[in-house]
Design goal:
The complex is a heterodimer of chains A (437) and B (250). Chain A folds into two domains: 3-274, no CATH class; 378-437, no CATH class. In chain A, 23% of the residues lie in helices and 37% in strands. Chain A has ten helices and 20 strands. A ten-stranded mixed sheet of chain A has the order 2-1-5-8-10-12-14-16-18-20, with helices on one face. The termini of chain A are far apart. Chain B has 250 residues and is α/β, with parallel strands linked by helices. Chain B has a single domain (2-249), classed as Rossmann fold. Chain B is built from nine helices and twelve strands. In chain B, the strands form three sheets. Chain B has a six-stranded mixed sheet, sandwiched between helices. In chain B, strands 2-1-4-5 form a four-stranded antiparallel sheet. In chain B, strands 7-8 form a two-stranded antiparallel sheet. The two termini of chain B are 34 Å apart. The chains are: A alpha/beta (437), B alpha/beta (250). Chains A and B meet through helix 8 and helix 9 of A and helix 2, strand 7 and helix 3 of B.
């Protein structure tokens, strides 16, 4: 049976099985209809022109893994930023692992969407925020139809969260190929601050497909600092759909580090609903073999006097392929917008490809929008210079790649995350430079 | 120490060096002078191993070891240092991190452990004082936004840190004011010792007032056409290169 049919036919059983309020039920049923109509995206869709899911959709995925899998912390410690104190929400094959997690209801709520769906305490938040910013395209509709579990984070106003929150999804794929559809809801109240680290990690050779939706709501004057670490197994693919709604005077940044996985598609969407908003979208992508990463960003400037800063760096080796599609929409009302987009790519091998496409739709007349896109090779003069100073070619190349990525790395505000990223880059480039940048 | 025999080299199909013979012994300072386009910078790049140049004939050896068999980093590990005429900017890598990596990679290649952090710091302090380099300067990205003089001083700082067996200074004096010239020369003179050698490549004799060469060679049209002592440099300064050209063409 094709995956789409399999999903559609299993829906009834799924929906009857879950105890939820009627609003959510309605949203999910509607989303299923949308998905039924839309189906999986194909390359015929402009937004999916360079990314085909065909090779991963043909797997016979287990949709609702029902075995409880336990993992020893020691086995997976390396996937955590373990050298800092943090809240943790950990899922194994889509199921909450209380053993690996460290949640809280003290002042802030760092817990599970499944419990938020059922507990009256969270009813208003669910009603006001759940599925309110997620745009129902193919993959998001599919996720919404089956939305039942994920991280639920609620930060009341004026709270500066004392330590970062890690959301980690492990896939054991213990029996077979597995489809996972986590759904995260993050609401950050007025004047509140939060830092979040998200990671999806397969522990198996079996094919894993993760279709995750994260909705982030930043209320007035709040500050959200979000990091996505993508360094998954070569049989694991992800479609990451993230939607950020920003009210006035907020600063939200999302850093995406893509070093691994089979097919990685990031749909990162920002909506600036209030004035004096700053949206920061940054990424470093380092690929080799046949890896594929597609960054689709959207910044929608709805209100006036806002800024957006995008900076994506890509380094492509082997037969890897990259896509950067950065769309900026400036509404007629969004005067004095300052939108900046930078996308620089280095092709290390002749066989690697990158497709870069900036898209600007500007309806206001008093705006500053700049975009720059480059595709090039490593600087031979610089390589010779470094080699002349005794740095072997491999290390010299690595150092240049670090340097190239530095404009993104330098804005990482959690030192342990930065040092982890440094290590992952060194690992990826197979060097040991002995220092962090 | 350095032995160059009948060296022919060029870029693509163009021959630039047309049979260079040069022997530099430990403890000596040699200067190569010559008009623009004579092949001075090509010679330094070929010794350092820049791969866009092709060596078509001849040998280069350092202490009996064939340099042409080695890549640029391996040559550096053997003690070849080239101070670049145009040092490359490397945004995102600080001067300190760069020199640490450089030193430790060289040590690693020579079978030594990393330099202990304390010793490294002390050495950085000592050498930066020698070259009158501000501490703040060391945390800046390598050569990025440096003035011409700062770049050159930074080259000599790296040289002082690495203590190479053979230092080649390619037009190190260009773009330097008189104070910077004195500082750079002082750095080079401090490195001078019986087991090291320096090859200065320059268009003018200005730098040679501060670093006194044992031998001066004139490079013209890819060949060394004249060799003398320090007084040859003064003669060139006074009379220019035309008399040499006439001598050759006569």
């Amino acid at each position: 049976m094709e995956l789409k049919e399999k999903l559609l036919s299993s829906y009834v059983a799924f929906e009857n099985n879950v105890n939820i309020n009627s609003d959510v039920h309605e949203i999910r049923t509607k989303a299923l209809k949308d998905f039924e109509e839309l189906g999986f995206p194909t390359k015929k869709l402009e937004a999916w022109k360079y990314t085909s899911l065909n090779s991963i959709l043909k797997e016979d995925y287990s949709i609702f893994p029902n075995k409880e899998e336990a993992i020893e912390f020691a086995e997976v410690k390396k996937y955590f930023i373990h050298d800092i104190d943090s809240y943790k929400i950990v899922f194994i094959d889509g199921k909450y692992s209380s053993f690996l997690s460290d949640t809280t209801h003290d002042v802030i709520d760092v817990c599970l969407l499944s419990s938020a769906f059922t507990k009256s305490k969270h009813k208003a938040v669910i009603e006001n925020y759940f599925n309110k910013v997620a745009k129902q395209d193919n993959m998001t509709a599919l996720n919404t139809a089956f939305a039942s579990e994920g991280a639920y984070i609620y930060i009341p106003k004026n709270v500066e969260v004392d330590k970062p929150i890690q959301i980690i999804n492990f896939a054991t794929g213990s029996d077979s190929a597995t489809l996972l559809q986590p759904r995260n809801l993050i609401v950050v109240g007025e004047n509140a601050h939060v830092q979040i680290i998200e990671r999806h990690q397969s522990l198996s050779e079996n094919a894993i497909l993760t279709n995750v939706v994260t909705e982030i709501f930043a209320e007035k004057r709040s500050n959200v600092d979000y990091y996505k670490i993508q360094n998954d197994h070569s049989a694991a693919s992800i479609v990451d759909n993230t939607f950020v709604a920003q009210e006035g005077d907020t600063i939200c940044s999302v850093h995406t580090f893509s070093f691994g996985g089979k097919i990685v598609r990031n749909n990162l969407n920002f909506f600036q609903n209030g004035e004096h908003v700053d949206s920061i979208l940054k990424g470093v992508t380092i690929l080799d073999d046949k890896q594929h990463v597609d960054h689709h960003t959207l910044v929608h400037h709805i209100a006036p006097n806002c800024e957006s800063h995008q900076d994506y760096k890509g380094i492509y080796d082997g037969r890897s392929t990259g896509v950067f599609n950065g769309k900026i929409i400036v509404n007629k009302e969004a005067q004095k917008t300052n939108a900046y987009q930078q996308n620089n790519n280095v092709l290390v091998s002749d066989k690697a490809t990158v497709n870069a496409k900036p898209q600007l739709e500007i309806f206001a007349d008093d705006v500053k929008c700049s975009h720059g896109c480059t595709i090039g090779q490593l600087d031979e003069q610089a390589l010779f210079y470094m080699q002349q100073r005794g740095i072997p070619k491999k290390e010299a190349r690595a150092l240049l790649m670090y340097a190239f990525s530095n404009t993104v790395l330098e804005s990482v505000r959690i030192p342990e995350v930065k040092s982890r990223i440094n290590k992952l880059i060194a690992q990826k480039l197979n060097v040991n430079l002995g220092f962090d940048l | 120490m350095l032995e160059i025999k009948n060296l022919h080299a060029g870029i693509e199909d163009k021959e630039i060096l047309k049979g260079i013979n040069l022997t530099i012994n430990a403890g000596e300072i040699h200067a190569i002078m010559g008009p623009n386009g004579a092949g001075k910078s090509t010679l330094s790049a070929v010794i350092a191993g820049k791969d866009e140049y092709e060596v078509t004939k001849g040998d280069i050896s350092l202490d009996g070891e064939d340099l042409l068999e080695l890549d640029p980093a391996e040559r550096a590990h053997k003690g070849v240092f080239l101070s670049f005429q145009y040092p490359v900017e490397i945004p995102g890598v600080s001067v300190t991190n760069f020199i640490k990596t450089s030193i430790n990679e060289t040590r690693k290649a020579n079978g030594k452990e990393d330099m202990p952090a304390k010793e490294m710091l002390q050495k950085i302090r000592e050498k930066s004082e020698l070259l009158e380099i501000d501490r703040k300067f060391l945390s800046r990205s390598l050569n990025e936004g440096f003035s011409g003089g700062e770049k050159k001083r930074n080259e000599i700082f790296q040289m002082a840190m690495l203590e190479p067996k053979l230092a080649i200074l390619d037009e190190t004096d260009s773009g330097l004011d008189i104070d910077a010239l004195r500082i750079v020369a002082n750095g080079v003179n401090k490195l001078r010792s019986d087991d090291k050698a320096v090859l200065i490549i320059t268009h003018y004799q200005r730098l040679l007032e501060y670093i006194k060469p044992d031998f001066v060679h004139v490079l013209y049209d890819g060949k060394i056409v004249k060799t003398g002592d320090a007084s040859l440099a003064l003669e060139l300064e006074e009379k220019g290169y035309d008399w040499i050209k006439e001598e050759i063409n006569a």
